[in-house]
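Work Package 3 (structural annotation) set out to generate three-dimensional models for the target panel prioritized at the project kickoff. During this period the team completed the workflow that converts sequence records into discrete structure tokens, so that structures can be stored uniformly alongside our sequence database. As a representative example, we reproduce one entry of 70 residues exactly as it appears in the project archive.
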Amino acid sequence: MLHEMYELEARMRARREEAAQKRLAAEVRRARRERRAAEAAARARDGRERAGLPAVGAGWRRLLRWGTGA
């Protein structure tokens, strides 16, 4: 009886640890994806500024202007 309880507890602990590992892995993937997106945006911005263009493209400016009702 006691032996079975220990087994059950060990299985539950293993399941909890596995779930925690999955959560951590998902968090790491999300952070990496966000960092890559931020780096890509920064590269695009730098490229536009180097070319003498505004950091925000005309399409975004139109959207921003439309959003303000101007």
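The chain has a mean pLDDT of 84.
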